[in-house]
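Forum > Structural Biology > Help requests

Title: Can anyone predict the 3D structure of Sugar porter family MFS transporter?

Hi all, first post here. I have the sequence for Sugar porter family MFS transporter but no way to get a structure on my laptop. I'd be grateful if someone could post the structure tokens.
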Amino acid sequence: MGGPPVAARGQERLGYVTFIAAAGAIGGFLFGYDSAVINGAVVGIQRYFNVGPVTIGVVVAVALLGSAVGAWFAGSLADRWGRTKTMRLAAVLFAVSSVGQALPFAIWDLAFWRVLAGAAIGMASVLGPAYIAEVAPPAYRGRLGSFQQLAIVLGIAVSQLVNFAVNLWAGGEVNNDLGPLQAWQWMLGACLVPALVFLVFASVIPESPRYLVAAGREGQAREVLRDIEGDHVDLDERVAEIRSVLRTRRRPRLGDLRGPRFGLLPIVWTGIVLSVFQQFVGINVIFYYSSVLWQSVGITQSDSLLISFSSSIINIVGTFIAMALVDQVGRRPLLLVGSAGMAIALAVASWSFSYSFSVDGIVQLPAAQGAAALIAANAFVLFFALSWGVIVWVLLGEMFPGRIRAAALSVAAAAQWLANWVITVTFPPLANWNLALTYLFYAVFAALSYLFVVFIVKETKGRKLEEMG
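Reply #1:
Sure, ran it for you. Structure tokens for Sugar porter family MFS transporter below:
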């Protein structure tokens, strides 16, 4: 009588919140999937269209410019239409682009569809963290916010597994035919499946209660808050608390981010620099070019895809470590450990590649340095995953005050995509010039990220969103 016990109802609510947070993070899965799928297809694209390294570098990186544009506009769209409706738009754009990427008739046509896919991913990269932060109870917000990065690394792993399976099915050669298409085309077309999954889940999860209050739909906001926070919470008080934060707020604009430091508020600059450091340590070099890199040191195409997949498993393990610790030890300690570990691993990789030599135009490493490079690369992935991979997305979702959250997150995410583009497009010529110095460049940024956390980043563990800013 009287319903299930309080503990049981609490577990049921936590299960529900976990479900909707996971659904909101599926956009991160698209991000990871698209990021890694090009790793397996890039050689096939280059051969199919007979283009050089500069052109293929542009085609790989151009999606990131689309992502920057998508991230830039996502905040305003989410504040105008709602978080879930904008998620559905992103899912449709990604589904259409997946079909286009699988059936290109020219290299510029492929580049266009990659820009469209990038725009969809950029939108999802803003919407996921914002939505999760707004539906998650403070005690669990760090772990639930970690779902964004978990979805990204799972997307990377699944994509690399699909690439490996398709490559194996095609006889170990991505330009072999599989029915009417070549293997690399099937790799890109497979992105349609997660896009449709995202569309379905974005259609069934509830809208953010903070958006509902801002839109004047307080009755619906109370229902969502009751489902995610429980009957014991004073719903009128919670709605009033949210309303008080939003009371003086109009729909956020980029002008609301203006401040005394170089034209922006300090908290916005903090988010931008966090985003840039996350990319300037060179993490996406591992996921965009790792198969090409390992092939350059004598590993076969199929084996290089398998090594890339093993790096993704390490990425997942590191992400789970971060999820287990983020609400216990806090955000800053994990960032500091990650920065130190990445700096050391990248320095070892730089040392290893300083011993590289060329045989018939193919880069080779001595056995000891080759083993050290492989270990260092995987250590780098592990330290990134348990720190900057997860924590930056958690912080971007929660660190900004409510009146500017969507707009500020859009700017920070756009900066992240632009930084990603810079690293992606510059890696091929830098690696061709001096691979050892390229990794040393990333090691320096990892060391600088440590100092940035020490002097600038504030802890947000356990604080309500209404207390931020």
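The chain has two domains: 7-205, 259-468. The chain has 19 helices and four strands.
Shout if anything looks off.
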